[in-house]
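[Solved] Which block belongs to which protein?

Original post:
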Amino acid sequence: MWQGLTFTIESADPEAARRCCEQAVALLQPDGPERQYVWEELDTLKARVLRAQPVDATLRAWSSGIVEGQSFQQMSEEFARLVIPRVWEREGRKVSRVAEKLSISPKKVRRILHAAGVSERE
């Protein structure tokens, strides 16, 4: 956790902080009140990791009901262009993992990555 908190310091590595947070969540087991400080530190790390990842302005507008004349289909396609590249990064740039995780075809994942301007071979 301390390593993750260190990574959340400004201009550090937010992706490494996120990985540390995920590992801490996986490793920590509920204990008695004598270990409460550990959970408080984990909550601090989670909050910092979330703050380090800005919410896309489009998603923020949609959550407020601002759809600007878009159809649901158009919004779905734009959502896919926002989300799939991020899932692809988290899954080690593996199209097959993204397809499995999101239950869509690898062909569609590739099409969306291409539409989002992301190259599989970067």
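(Second protein starts here: sequence line, then its structure tokens.)
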Amino acid sequence: MKVRHTPLPAFVLALAIGVTTGCSTEQPDAAGSSQTATSRPVGVAVSTGPRERLTIDTSPSSVELDDSTGEVYVLASNEILVFEQKSNALINRIRVAPGAEDIAFDRVNRTAWVSGSSRSNAPEDRTVNIVDTQTKRVIGSVEVAYPAIAVGVDPLAHRAFVVNRPDDQTKVPDSRAWLTVFDTRTREEITTIDLPFAAYDIDVDPNTHSVLIAGWFNAALLSAQTLAVDRARSVGSASSSLEAVVDPERGRAYVVSDGAMWTISTGTSASVTEREIDWDEGSMAIGPGSTLLVADYENRGLLVIDPETGSILRRVPVDVAPNSIATTPDRRIAYVSSNPDKALSIIRFE
């Protein structure tokens, strides 16, 4: 997933109630550029136009796009705001369980699976809401044994994956979690897999039917079909903070932690490459030309990374403390959410 994770004690998100949304545009600076350029490989387009800013009336926990409709979904506490992509108009508000933080789309069944946790181990934290993406209504739910931390869907394999474990922000978690697998057609549970680390993130490659799971000190790759963990393509870190994302078009998965980046093949090759990097991990998404987009949480920036070298191609200014990134199917538009600023930065790559 694409959300900035805080494995150590996290601050409780402040809830805000308002009635307005708005969109503004930041013009380039005097030199004609709204970002700082560095070197870039031939063929990778990383220049951008003026940054647009969409203000909302609540504090977003994450942002994601429904690739089948192009609509932008912003998760915020106990609701989801849905925006039309071209006009940035708010078209719906969907009430869901408190603590909504992760969403995964099933384009086959035209649904979205939404997990959320108040980080209090309340009974409602174990519920995953299922939203009809056409009517924008909650049409059902499934329940897992522990608070639902993250969710992923492989539409063609007809499977949804829910990472769940006890979640208490006041203490270090136990070194285990569970991955509960559901049939997306019937919503029946298929099985639950015991994971030997405290997982908190999941991303799915629907082309190779690979599931990437990240958590405290570890990341693991497993098959969406056989549910077998590929130990040859699992990685370990000395840090509890890992960020992960898959690039289905290139058949790759990327894991970033503690000054290192691992590139994992999700295809038939079992290759894993590790390289040193000089930037910090943050929420990630795939950008234009299969670049990596990384949220620079401390410096209110969006980094454009060359995945072949791990080098920074460009820094794009965004709002304070960017915590989530989503991109359009063509990777030409990026949406970056800011919880403190109650806003989305909209970056258009040229």
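Accepted answer:
You had them paired correctly. Confirming on the second one: The longest strand covers residues 229-236.
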